[in-house]
């Protein structure tokens, strides 16, 4: 860190008035946004240092409460046990969870029931869906993942009282990128990723006939969607405040967030 | 430095004294070094034991160590289930599979280096195997992921991830240890053994497997155990190919986890009793390592006695 030694007047330009360090960690879904924002922020404010890490939503929230970091990125809401009333929620984007399969599989649409049957291990062979006579390889996220939590809740009907578990043979992966990698490389695999990770190496399937698109989610037709958050301990101040303001600015929302997610202000539902 | 200065000034009659003084100081430094190492081991053991105590107390030995029910709960750790038998089994199974292949391969390579190959070729093979030991495990895991897993998937019709892939990756990790230590053992055998055997009219093959290998038995066993230690502790490479599942493995192509991969997968977000249960898994790993070390002590003592 560069610290100015001069004892003259305080710098007047906006460039210099914001200084200090912002530590950000948590959800790997939010990671690309947070990194892009960090680059822009440090460019605009030369005397700041933003450090962004992944680790998963839960890990981020834990670190925030231990005051190791300033901002916890999260792809899920706070749980009752986690909120002691001091954590402030900043909704920064709206995201879609897409169910993805290997492109070799001739499957384009699954019903909610089928999704639940596949992920909980009640149906284990693709031939039950008109596919090849091969084992269904389920790929899921790790325990820390907010994406997993939202998926379990919406797709499997899991609740904190009655958790629904994915099939034991499911491959647990540490990030969206790894899931995409495994599903893309395994001809019989199915998994789920954040919409921003959908590309040509995998195929996003329709859920009950509705494809996971920004329009469908923003208007509430595709329901496997959630807000992405940045949590702070108390109201954000100093460089942390400025960093979050940048993320929420119209320009950043449009140019960066809008590329892969839905801008927060476009979403009607709460 | 001071000792040497004193030596120059005071002359020959104090030379012995200064020398002893310096030796004592060296001894103290060495003792300090050794104490730090022992202290570190002791602290690690105590720390891991202390951290795993809450889960042992809360869940009981049976539910923690002898249950296959692994359903952790991140938000409310007390509501989860933390049986680790699946992962102990995963560790033992992958290690056993790896040893099944790397033991004959390693000892065979050692025999080749020490007994069969001409000097120049033995040197090349030995260097190659030593080089293998220097490859970072993540690189080996990467190769496993892009070459081994698809190959196994093609042959077996499974996903390719699983125990077999993990074992094969571990073979690469354990092989250098087994080969170099076995070669050392064979080299240290008295030359008379071989000479006597050959003089009796035994062929080279007969000499190797009826005289040399039996005489080197304890040393070879130690080599295998040390290789096993390497395999049991390996994390990164295994995690990339084992399929990271929580299912109890019943087939070599089933996806599961080992103790190390489970710890590394879940440490990030674990708190409370969940975290403690992961420490209990570390404790089991530590105990397995200790058993192996004790085994080595017992075997080498037997060898010295023989």
Overview of this protein structure:
The complex is a heterodimer of chains A (270) and B (306). Chain A has 270 residues and is α/β, with parallel strands linked by helices. Chain A is 31% helix and 23% strand. Chain A has 2 domains: 20-95 and 227-266, D-Maltodextrin-Binding Protein, domain 2; 96-218, D-Maltodextrin-Binding Protein, domain 2 (3-Layer(aba) Sandwich). In chain A, the strands form 2 sheets. In chain A, strands 1, 2, 3, 4, 6, 7, 8, 9 and 11 form a 9-stranded mixed β-sheet that branches. In chain A, 46% of the residues are buried. Chain B has 306 residues and is an all-alpha fold. Chain B contains 12 helices and 2 strands; from the N terminus they run ααββαααααααααα. Chain B has a two-stranded antiparallel ribbon with strand order 1-2. The two termini of chain B are 46 Å apart.
Strand content of chain A: 15-25%
pLDDT averaged residue by residue of chain A? 86
Largest sheet report of chain A = 9 strands, mixed
Architecture of chain B in CATH?
Answer: Orthogonal Bundle
First-last Cα distance of chain A: 40 Å
| Mean pLDDT across all amino acids of chain B | 89
> In what range is the share of β-strand residues of chain B?
under 5%
Classification by helices and strands of chain A = alpha/beta
| CATH structural class of chain B | Mainly Alpha
Record keyword descriptors for this entry:
heterodimer; A: about 270 residues; alpha/beta; D-Maltodextrin-Binding Protein, domain 2; 2 domains; nine-stranded mixed β-sheet; two-stranded parallel sheet; 9 helices; 11 strands; about 30% helix; about 25% strand; disordered N terminus; B: about 300 residues; mainly alpha; MetI-like fold; two-stranded antiparallel ribbon; about 80% helix; about 0% strand
